[in-house]
Amino acid sequence: MNDLPQLELRSDTVQQALDAINHAFVVYDAQERFVFCNLKHREWYAPIAHLLTPGRPLEEILRAWHGVVGPELIPPQTEDEYVASTVARHRQAAGVEQELRSRHRWITVAEHRMPDGGIVALRRDITPLKKLEAELRGHHRVLDDVAELSYNWYWRQDRDYRYTEVSAGAGSHGDLLLDLWQGKTHWELGLGDVSAGQWELHRAQLARREPFYDFTYSMAGADGQRRWFETSGKPLFDGEGEFQGYHGVGREITARKETELKLGRLARYDELTGLANRHLLDERIGLAIALAQREGCHCAVLFIDLDRVRRVNNTMGHIAGDELLAEIAQRIARRVRETDTVGRRGGDEFMVVLPMIAEPEAAAHVARAILQAISEPLLMHRAQLHVTASIGISVYPDDGEDQQTLIQHADAAMYFTKAHGRNGYHFFTREMHDRVNARLGLESRLRDAIEHNHFVLAYQPQVAIKDGAITGVEALLRWNDPVHGLILPDEFIDVAEETGLILGIGEWALKEACREACTWPANGKEAPRVAVNISALQFQQPQLPELVRSVLAETGLPPHRLELEVTETSLMRDTAGVLDVLDRLRASGVSIAIDDFGSGYSSLGYLKRFPIDKLKIDKTFIDECALPGNDAAITSAIIALGRALNLTVVAEGVETAPQLEFLRERGCEVVQGYHLSPPLPVTALHAFLCQAARRH
């Protein structure tokens, strides 16, 4: 190359212009020697920038570049292959842009021959563009797949809203025939479940050339079955803005619609009985109050609870129990007006809403009719059942002016009926109101007691009759109320069970008993085990065995030193579930005792299957066991039963010497009660255990 072009290339103006372009620009002379490059080319070849000097042979530069970057930035070739192919392309100088691919980069290269035989080469990094193209191809594949798998169909209408095109998908969605759609408008297709008002709104949208979404309708298919569809559309305009019609998509939504209808029914009706559920009952009570206010009359709420229906579940199973509830529901529904609402609150509780009654006595008349219907004999599984109910009645506006108050007061009246003989009804009174408030106050104080840890444990020793040794200690819950002093469980445990607060209280009692049992003196022998009562609600929790294992691990109490006392009635609620929980508890190493045995309705067959260690005779039998009569016979039978099943029998509530002697003669092994020791605080228990240990 002569000197003049070199001078021209090195002028400042040309230099600045070439540095500004986004291509890598380089010039080689006719002998394939480096002459000049721009800033982009120098940045590109930065690792060998020191070789980019005038007169440097192209082959030397290529070999150096291959050795520095390798296949990451150049095609995957050997050094000789790379040099040979690049030089060949350079010499050809076809002026055509070619794409070169390395492992992570796409590059375009074009060489142009100059008049003096030199070469100008341009390089451009198109990696971002290639990645964008690949991404777009991926999106297109996704869209193609979605279109292929879609359950939607495409449609098009002319300026008069008549169908001109319907994709084949429509024929597979509800057996719709395409020829029935062609040339017709929406409103000529005989669509169902669209009101006149909805058609008016839809046609107004079309007239305004507005898009519409999810227009829902139903159609009968070729099989006669009605199916649901929805369609959405947008207006079409030509290039000059002239309206051409509509196009859009449709799809079948029968499954979704049926699910919505089912969920809507489940949200308002009880699945078992078909009656209104508590949400719909609340609505109907609110409506009844509004009608009574407008018409100047009364409305009433009847709260119905079936008496002792759990016995059916326990003896005949839950399927029979469900059948019983369904039958009772129908009996109640047949004794009310069409304008009344019968609902199920849950479990064995029902409610009747009586709108627009002239006087409260009308509610009493309905209550008597319902009681009579429920009490009629019921034949089920070859057994004749006799069911009764307790009903509470509240009346608007005398007993409350809002739905929640009327429900609470009817509930309170129902509990009053239960407490006074069952199988009847009572209207709400102010006395019941005071009881409701007292109960709510007790619940509030209980929550405060849990938050501020106002509970303590007392401990009553269990003594072996044979030698007076302490075999165990029962932990007994006490509420140390700052205002009312020490409160026994009989005064608060029912409220704790009903509100679910017993779960937190029971967990605290379990942890506290295990923690304190670890501190009891052993005096050369192993300290006695601690017995902790498990409430019925606690026992229904599937995670109870995990809780017990966690507490034992946290406190360090050996599992064999923990005994769990479960009431007989708790064991009979769900035999399969009970057996699973008992097995898992026993697997953790603790022992199981049935508390208050004799007060429930245990089947001896179930008793044999349960993995239990101990029977505790209910105190009501011990009170008069030393006197002639049934209690003595029952107590003797329980002791004999326990011995036959190799179970330890414990008599609780022993308060007199004659009771103790009776139990000794019948072979009872362990006793507890005031005759031997009252419940003791933990400090007094330590002294008692030490004294007992010295005697043995």
Written overview of the protein:
The chain is an alpha+beta fold and 696 residues long. Helix content is 44%, strand content 24%. The chain is built from 27 helices and 26 strands. The strands form five sheets. The chain has an eight-stranded mixed β-barrel with strand order 18-19-21-22-23-24-25-26, surrounded by four helices. Strands 2-1-5-4-3 form a five-stranded antiparallel sheet. Strands 7-6-10-9-8 form a five-stranded antiparallel sheet, with helices on both faces. A hairpin with a 2-residue loop joins strand 12 and strand 13. Helix 12 packs antiparallel against helix 13. The longest helix has 23 residues, at 127-149. The chain starts with a helix and ends with a helix. Residues 1-9 have low confidence and may be disordered.
Any descriptors?
696 residues; alpha+beta; eight-stranded mixed beta barrel; 44% helix; 24% strand; disordered N terminus
Summarize the structure.
This protein is α+β, with helices and mostly antiparallel strands.
What is the strand and helix layout of this fold?
Blueprint: H1 3-9, H2 12-20, E1 24-28, E2 34-37, H3 39-44, H4 58-69, H5 79-92, E3 98-101, E4 106-113, E5 119-125, H6 127-149, E6 153-157, E7 163-166, H7 169-172, H8 178-181, H9 196-207, E8 212-220, E9 226-237, E10 243-252, H10 254-268, H11 278-295, E11 298-306, H12 310-316, H13 318-333, E12 341-346, E13 349-357, H14 361-375, E14 378-380, E15 383-385, E16 389-396, H15 403-419, E17 424-427, H16 430-452, E18 455-464, E19 470-481, E20 485-487, H17 493-499, H18 502-517, E21 529-534, H19 536-539, H20 544-555, E22 562-567, H21 568-571, H22 575-587, E23 591-597, H23 604-609, E24 614-617, H24 619-622, H25 630-644, E25 648-652, H26 657-666, E26 670-672, H27 682-695
